[in-house]
Amino acid sequence: MAYSPLLTRLMEALRCLPGVGPKSSQRMALYLLEREREGAQRLVDVLQEALERVGHCQRCRTLSEQSLCDICGDPRRLAAQLCIVETPADVLAVEQATDYRGHYFVLHGHLSPLDGIGPGELGLDRLQALLAGGEVTEVILATNPTVEGDATAYYVADLARERGLRVTRIAYGVPLGGELEYIDGGTLSHAFSGRRELGP
């Protein structure tokens, strides 16, 4: 069966979501149009508002509606500790699973020269400026335990060591090749509390 051009475009648009293939996008599109038009309109409205109002925190680069996110704007957080993560989802994972009370810096990816992702794309110039500010004394590397995540961690570690800062890496409990946002809270909490010094 051939769908109308607009319905086909809707199905193709839904495939931009992670894990959504042709069958899933077809099911979603048909469900929204057949049974949940009111919900679809709410989704359109909220998505449009989010696209217009949600940007990045000027300090840590996580998603935020304000120039400073709630974490960076909280005077009770420890400015001496800076946790480096790959995505805003990783910030949420650490916040939910641990009692960490420091600040974050979100890279929005990892070093991957083959994909054209270098230090500039990860905002490492902004990270260096943050480290030069004099408040940070410990950099906690919580990049994903993948080849690219490890390479990124070592690169950031070198930047921190140049300033004489303590560098630790979250430790055991996180499986090699895993991604933080998919790891259960107990495992992540254990890994975070067991972080270790990262050698040169």
Brief descriptors of the model:
200 residues, Helicase, Ruva Protein, domain 3, 42% helix, alpha/beta, single chain, five-stranded mixed sheet
Order of helices and strands: HHHEEEHEHEHEHE
Here the CATH topology of the largest domain equals: Dna Topoisomerase Vi A Subunit, Chain: A, domain 2
Q: How is the main sheet built?
A: 5 strands, mixed
Name the poorly predicted regions. none
Question: Ends: how far apart?
Answer: 60 Å
Question: How many separate structural domains?
Answer: 2
Which percent band covers the strand fraction?
5-15%
Question: With helices defined by DSSP (H or I, 4 residues minimum), what is the helix count?
Answer: 7
Oligomer: single chain
How is the largest sheet built, in terms of strand order? 4-3-5-6-7
Shape: elongated
Mean pLDDT: 90
**CATH architectural designation of the largest domain:** 3-Layer(aba) Sandwich
Using DSSP, what is the number of strands? Answer: 7
Q: Whole-number radius of gyration?
A: 20 Å
For this structure, what is the CATH class of the largest domain? Alpha Beta
SS class: alpha/beta
